[in-house]
User: Fold these one by one.
Assistant:
Number 1:
Amino acid sequence: MSSVLTDLWRYPLVQAPMAGGASRPQLAAAVSDAGGLGFLAAGYKTADGMYQEVKQIRSLTSRPFGVNVFMPQPRTADAGALAVYQHQLAGEAAWYETPLGDPDSSHDDGYEAKLAILRDDPVPVVSFTFGCPSAEVLGSFARVGTATVVTVTCVDEAVAAERAGADALCVQGVEAGGHQGTHRDDPDAEGAGLGLLSLLGLVREAVDLPLIAAGGLMRGTQVAAALAAGADAAQLGTAFLPCPESGAHELHKRALTDPLFVRTELTRAFSGRPARGLVNRFMREHGPYAPAAYPQVHYLTSGLRKAAAKAGDPQAMALWAGQGHRLARQMPAADLVEVLMAELQGAQAKLAAAGEAR
């Protein structure tokens, strides 16, 4: 594996960048200090808001960390379908006594401004979701000493990212919580996502880049399986959500192991893009009718989600979670890193012993 990445961590554990507040500087710093690689999530923040968090994490740790950036999205939403969905949500707005948001609030998530800051004051790692930057953008980060990671969900995306000059790939299986990081949101391809281990095998044979495995990983034994399948490191998000350093809402943290929430599904209900979350009332009632309209639906439902959280109602919150959410453990992030590593090393020792016994 390229030293450009192995120099960034003591343990092959990456804390996933979770937009929406979970990936606070306190969480990322705790993971990095414990030997993993912590990540900030720039998504949905202003460029200055992102920079303030970068400054904050630098005051909390001297260890390397990363920043995740969302790629700008094409304006392909069907205005008519979006208007119908907006009308459908009118009852929710009345119930929670809050107006629906402006669906045209932002399309590029401040992309260029964020890149300018990250090049002017470089951080160790920048990762990208919802697409692959141009070779010129990736090259500009290489020139300032920043390693780049591109999230991929299929072999074609992996090959394109390698050709563009990415230093590493985050290979995201369909088990992952939150948004699927597909480079193109194609409604006709819904349900075609691959599980992590199958995807890792395919991508490993197609590219010659370091791979970070992501998707439903909650235990060190699962990390061992991902490493054995070709990954160089593992990225975990849901596993870190219940940590006290996480900025996730307490209702969200409790829901991960609440028997009321028995399964997850991919839905467009909250954002207009497929994202995996705990199935709740809002998802059941609105998911089948939500249009392919990201980020418009995200901004449309933003006030509803906040109002539901304020009212203590998890049934209208976006409870993003991976398929392994019932395995969540509530403990400080540093302790979780150590537990995961003990499980990983134990699993690797068993595999080694089995191999010697043959």
Number 2:
Amino acid sequence: MDSRPLDPLDLKLLQALQLDGRAPFSRLGEVLGVSDQTVARRFRRLRTTAGLRVLGMIDEGRLGRVGWIVRLRCTPDVAEQLANALARRPDTSYINLVSGGTEVLCAMRPRSRQDRDELLFDRLQRTPRVISVSAHCLLHVFYGGPLGWLNKVQALDPEQVNALRLPQIDPVGTVTPDKDDEVLLAVLRRDGRATFSELQSATGQSESVVRRRMDRLRSSGTLYFDVQHTAESVGHGVGALLWLTVSPSALSEVGRALAEHPEVSFAAAITGQANLIASVGTPSTGDLYTYLSERIGALDGVQAVETVLTLRQIKQLAYEPTR
């Protein structure tokens, strides 16, 4: 991957895709003020230089599933092998090697309680050289999921944002996709910009049925499209996970404040000794120090912070073992 930061048009394209991952190149070009051929060329180049992928994601909360952050402490000789094994699971994301290669961090949303217990109480506990396992339930997400970090780059002007932003969704209750929905969602998880003809071929459903199903899944808040890219391409040379211990009375206020910080791509209240977690990206360790001392230090109610640097990311949204 090319580690050079992106130029203004690249950033505009990434933010546009975050707003509407399936917008045609012609529509993107119209909003960005360039030709659709330019958009197509930029898109293809960013796939190579910045790891760009648009993926159809499920808001697991709409299905009644609970998210977890799992910390696995292990000996250095098995950390990468363990991380890659977890990355192959379809219910995991954002798997990082941290702490000098002796710890693996993993986000997961098991499809069922049985799947959760099988992984946490059986497989991981029996894995050789795993020293400890701690699992932290996501109680409330302040930022993340459909709210991707690219919404914070402000590369687009307000008029461009409004032209691409989809109608606001205010989902209520849970939904249960049927088997045909599951097939469609699986295809979109591999390629969120798959054409309707490709979706028709992959699912065996007519194009009109595919369109209706996708519209229903999006309007219910079940399906959204996210953009995967390298952190270095947007100037984030340093990534870290912050485990914050916050006074319960200040938990909501601190969580909402973190959601507004441009450095934060994910923030959630969790179970455990630390009750708030945040994923942050900065250009350098010096910038991370400034963020911790000036932004985090200024938040009332924060009692302690554990800062864990990311050494290597094994998986974001999709596992790509050849990268």
Number 3:
Amino acid sequence: MPEYVSILQPLGPVALALAAVIWVAVLFRVLRRDHEVHRGRFAGLARGGGQRLRGLPHQRRKGPHVEQVELTPAEQDAFAFLARQFSDDRLA
């Protein structure tokens, strides 16, 4: 190892790798612990499909009311003119 390299420089990646290995081992152990107990509990929750979450508001079965306005023939002609004008601008 060169003289200008501090002992802390090679120890940094080693410490990070060791921390990552420990983190993965703990995570694996936590996920495996009581796996059957949790699986049974979550399966029971999934079967009780009729229960609603109280923290969420009631969802509508259909979408919002659609609003529409009847245009007079003059307004329809003006709208058609604007649409043609905008489409002509895109082509130019």
Number 4:
Amino acid sequence: MSDTQLTVTIGGGDVDDARTVVRALEGTFGAADQRPSAEHATIRVATFTGEGQGAAAGTADTGPLSAPVTVTVQGAPEAVRRASDTLTRSFTARDEGAASGDQEQERQLLLEP
């Protein structure tokens, strides 16, 4: 799957928490095309369009979160599954639900420190 497209929306926490979440996903999807940067934003977005090192990637120590964050991953079903798997391996996570469309899927996770 070379045309992976994944959008990650991160709410709660601070910009460092958002960057921690993105770092966890970079081993699976490669470097983010768009990274969270706004210091005072309440919602931060990152996008990925590439491939990383494979399904086993993303298990490196990402560091702790300072506060609970809500993460929504949206994209192709396989990309959403891989992102969800990576985040649940990297953080204490609770599945908050999913929605499926014709060609995209969305999943929301609550990540806790």
